[in-house]
């Protein structure tokens, strides 16, 4: 099934209404769809580099709006919708422990999930379920998704096809290492001074 969804997503990159498809995929990926919008963004930007910034903006806005749907699922329908989504991703065991500490690290959790390959939908649902302040969630989502989508767009716009493999295989790792170093730096500053 996942392979079929992936193939459909790639085919949609050539569709005349690709921006609308990207908006839809970005929206639903933030709450339940398993395929990230980058899969659509990459071929769209390579085909039309002059639209790189528009493509990134569509992905950003749609993703944050979809994140609000995920937040609402967590806040208002966790047991009916949110919990089954998280269980299908194998995240059910850690939900109770995670929820007790989530809001202490809410900014970092949303930032990390918004930038790295960690499923953003998990954090959107958990943010609503744990009652993270909505403005913190929205602001951090805009920051994280903006960094991710505009960096991908910028790299493709500047370097084109040669950077594609790096983005598809290593960018998630680079983002993850960046977040680890950033959090480690804040930890050292806080505890060394």
TrEMBL record:
Q: Which residues cross the membrane?
A: 20-40, 52-78, 105-123, 135-159, 171-189
VTT domain location: 38-155
Pfam families from the UniProt entry: VTT_dom
Q: Mind listing the UniProt keywords for this protein, alphabetically?
A: Membrane, Transmembrane, Transmembrane helix
Choose one Gene Ontology CC annotation of this protein and give it.
Answer: plasma membrane
Give the source's domain of life in one word: Bacteria
Official protein name in the record: SNARE associated Golgi protein
Q: What organism, scientifically named, is this protein from?
A: Roseovarius albus
């Amino acid at each position: 099934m996942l392979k079929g969804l992936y193939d459909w997503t790639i085919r949609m990159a050539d569709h005349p209404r690709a921006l609308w498809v990207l908006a839809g995929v970005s929206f639903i990926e933030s709450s339940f769809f398993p395929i990230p919008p980058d899969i659509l963004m990459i071929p769209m930007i390579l085909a039309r580099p002059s639209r790189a910034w528009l493509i990134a903006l569509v992905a950003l806005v749609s993703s944050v709006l979809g994140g609000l749907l995920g937040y609402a699922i967590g806040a208002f329908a966790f047991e009916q919708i949110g919990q089954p989504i998280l269980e299908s991703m194998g995240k059910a065991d850690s939900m109770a422990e995670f929820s007790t500490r989530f809001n202490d690290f809410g900014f970092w959790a949303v930032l990390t999930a918004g930038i790295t390959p960690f499923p953003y939908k998990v954090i959107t649902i958990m943010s609503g379920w744990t009652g993270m302040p909505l403005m913190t969630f929205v602001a951090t989502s805009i920051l994280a998704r903006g960094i991710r989508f505009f960096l991908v767009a910028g790299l493709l716009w500047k370097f084109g096809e040669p950077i594609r493999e790096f983005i598809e295989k290593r960018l998630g790792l680079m983002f993850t290492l960046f977040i680890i170093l950033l959090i480690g730096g804040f930890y050292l500053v806080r505890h060394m001074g």
